[in-house]
Q: What sequence folds into this?
């Protein structure tokens, strides 16, 4: 599975997914690309998009893309705040459906 970490997600979080191919938006050369265009680019090359951008769902029609999006809901994007949520993200990844939106922790 190919996982893309949004710019707002610390790149060190990739260590939490050793069994997957993980890249960052920056590594892809997509820094500064707006969300709609970014999601279209990601859909062509990745199996899932991980973000902490809580406005993403309101700004984009995610159901039109074949790419599942996982929103990690946390008080900050600090690695120490996000790491405790990673077991739930890892458990979710094999269950993802194209075009679906997921929240971790779930509502």
A:
């Amino acid at each position: 599975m190919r996982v893309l970490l949004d710019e707002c997600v610390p790149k060190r979080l990739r260590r939490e997914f050793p069994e997957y191919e993980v890249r960052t938006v920056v590594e892809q050369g997509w820094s500064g690309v707006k969300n709609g265009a970014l999601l279209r680019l990601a859909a062509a090359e990745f199996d899932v998009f991980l973000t902490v951008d809580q406005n993403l769902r309101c700004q984009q029609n995610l159901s039109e893309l074949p790419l599942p999006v996982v929103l990690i809901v946390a008080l900050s994007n600090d690695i120490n705040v996000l790491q405790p949520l990673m077991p739930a993200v890892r458990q979710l990844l094999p269950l993802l459906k194209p075009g679906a939106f997921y929240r971790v922790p779930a509502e």
